[in-house]
Amino acid sequence: MKDRSGRRERLRRELREKRNVAVVYFVLRLLVLVTMVRQAMNRNYENVALCLFTLVLFLLPSLIERRLRIEFPDVMEIIILLFIFAGEILGEIGAYFTVFQGWDVLLHTMNGFLCAAIGFSLVDMLNRNERFSLSLSPVYMAIVAFCFSMTIGVFWEFFEFTVDRLFLRDMQKDAVVNAISSVMLDPAGGNTHVIIKDIQDVILVTADGQIPLGVGGYMDIGLVDTMNDLFSNFLGAVVFSVIGFVYLKNRGRGKIAPRFIPQVLDVEEKEKDK
Fold this sequence. Notes:
This protein is mainly α and about 270 residues long. The chain has helices at about 1-40, 45-60, 60-70, 75-95, 95-100, 105-130, 140-165, 225-250, 265-274, and strands spanning about 70, 175, 180, 195, 205, 210, 220, 265.
């Protein structure tokens, strides 16, 4: 009787959580559609395309689940949907990246956490698969998850740099600094670094003349943003790697890690999907 009541309670909880995923998906999708209509009325067709791209990204979790025969935990799926909305709609169209200084840091930290969870899950699937002889200790599992997350973070920065160079965009957001140290300023042309402090303004010289930028200091071109992004990714990756390590050390006992580790569908569930 206790087992039967426990199963019923677990089923109710799963249905309730799935309903939460459906509600979040519906609300976010509705907000994207409203945003797309507003951008179309303003004739901002680039943002319209971004809204369409966001709707496509919303479909990725379910497509990955069907393709790889896995099931995302509901908490992870909701966070992925919120992450996409926060980055594409709020970040780009709503200009949250420039309005709120910590917005980019928050998203990259979350990205590092999620990518570490995905990397951990991929190796965990191989560990559980009888066709592979792969068997890694908790330490190596945590290291692999961390390295996977950092690799994704580096490739993303490569992507931002490439887009900025080829299409003159500004994905690598600039930063204003008030002090620099550079060997390029050595009057003798040597390798001695010259330090300049208390920079208040920079003059941009173009073919049309000199243009004071008035930004309040030296305008860094993407370097500070890139390093902040990678460091934020690093923090997120470390956090989940530690969580995953503790989870394996305790032989699969824990409340946090299972909410972010996709589960492989068993044979019976695979047959039902077919």
